[in-house]
Amino acid sequence: MRVDTNPYSGVTLAETIMANQSDLDEAYHAAAKAQVSWSDRLPAERAAVMFCSAAIMEARHSEIVDWLVRESGSTRVKAELEWQFVHAVTLEAASFPHRMEGKILPLDEAGKESRAYRQPLGVIGVISPWNFPMYLSHRSIAPALALGNAVVVKPAEDTPVTGGLLVAKIYEEAGLPPGLLNVVIGPISEIGDPFTLHPIPRLISFTGSTRVGRHIGTLAMQAPQLKRVALELGGNAPLVVLDDADLEHAVRSAVVGRFLHQGQICMSTNRIIVDASIYDEFVDRFTAHVKTLKYGDPNDPSVSIGPIINEKQLLGHLARIERARKEGARELLGGVPDRQVLPPHVFTGVTNDMAIAQDEIFGPIAPIIKVKDEEEALRIANQTEYGLSSAVFTRDRERGVKFALRFEAGMTHVNDHTVDDTPTGPFGGEKNSGIGRFGGEWILREFTRDHWVTVRRPDGLYPF
User: Is 119 helix (H, G, I), strand (E, B) or coil?
Assistant: First the structure.
């Protein structure tokens, strides 16, 4: 039995019976059986389920937001943002059944036709994290179902309701046939590796740490049946402020990019890199703005920073703060935690070789790095094993675009913070930040396969 608790109050939210390997096997077989007839449904029928799901999300808007606040420690602002993401990706997925286009290919052979059909993969396994639990589950679940696949999802143990059970309930109400969406909640020690190694899923969609993602990728190649992976992994997003930036805008963007959801987002601004000519003024304005942020109960609409998801994560942040002090970083803002609420921390005098700059922080800790010019800013920004999101601030937009294209990252935002996603964009990273892309036509291709079929009209002429 797993007890699901509110990370701020400690109140028990739910108790779930943990799945074992037998339960996992049953879920995969149920999905495989249901998927056959689902893929044969007319596009309009599959689209109708998606539209109905979106309507239910609208009707249950407040309930969904409340669950995100209670279970994941989301502030009201972040929970509303997550609801918008979930709703938007549902509407985008509703268009997918009518976008599964094939091709008639040119062929230099008389009496023969070459066709490329687009077909669903079959069953997709989804492993989702606790930080944006509903969205990071649903951005895979919605496209997979809309394209004619079935899904088995393993939500994080800290967020079983918002990461899986609530989504499944919505689809049940929307009329999704039984067996197509199965939620398994279980310990990694029991069903972690078997989830990927099972012969039924054709693709594993994972969002989480690079360490675990590497392991899943390895398992996918070792499984009895090779399978695809879509991996969205760790990040160390640089936010670069060039010498001609609008400082007020850059400061406010950097604060949101660093502290939204306590910094517990893969796209969070992990390093703030500022040109020396404006460094002191940026630091003063940034620190002054951070001082205005209220932290505490995430259910309070005025609170900007809520609790860390669990004690293990909190202890990791405290160790990271202590190491930053020992390595010579200057702590401008700080404070001791109140239960699992960690006040915002700001460090200056940070160099890019410090652990606080090289590690993915995933907490309300902001390191600010001074650089002499644009070229050093770019070099420092790219000196990381990660390459997920990034940002650059300048009054010259074309300068910003040229700079953006030199980032070693999958995504760059000019004059905007690093925490950005849309249902139609190619979300994903480079280097150790992942493989594949989510969103729009990119996820459509990830979750389908090309099937080449040739048709000969008259009898063929063969050499023997």
Answer: strand
Please report how many Cα atoms fall inside a 13 Å half-sphere around the Cα of residue 225, on the Cβ side.
8
78 neighbors 174 (Cβ within 8 angstroms): no
Residue with tokens 């079935």: 150
Q: Say yes or no to pLDDT of 381 above 90.
A: yes
- Distance, in Å, from the CA atom of 404 to the CA atom of 91, rounded to the nearest integer, reads 30
Q: How far apart are CA 164 and CA 125, in angstroms?
A: 12
Nearest to residue 413, comparing CAs of 235, 239, 286, 252? 239
Report the C-alpha gap between 259 and 364 in whole angstroms: 5
Contact 348, 194 (CB under 8 A): no
Rounded (10°) angle between helices 61-72 and 133-146: 130
Active site amino acids: 232, 266
Shortest CA distance to 343 belongs to which of 280, 456, 263, 279? 263
Neighbour count for residue 303 (Cβ, 10 Å)? 18
Look up the pTM and report it: 0.96
What span, in angstroms and rounded, lies between the C-alpha atoms of 53 and 178?
A: 15
How many residues can be counted in the chain? 464
Q: Hey, what are 20's tokens? A: 């074992």
Separation CA 399–CA 29 (nearest Å): 54
pLDDT computed for residue 462 by the predictor: 80
Nearest to 72 by CA among 136, 130, 123: 130
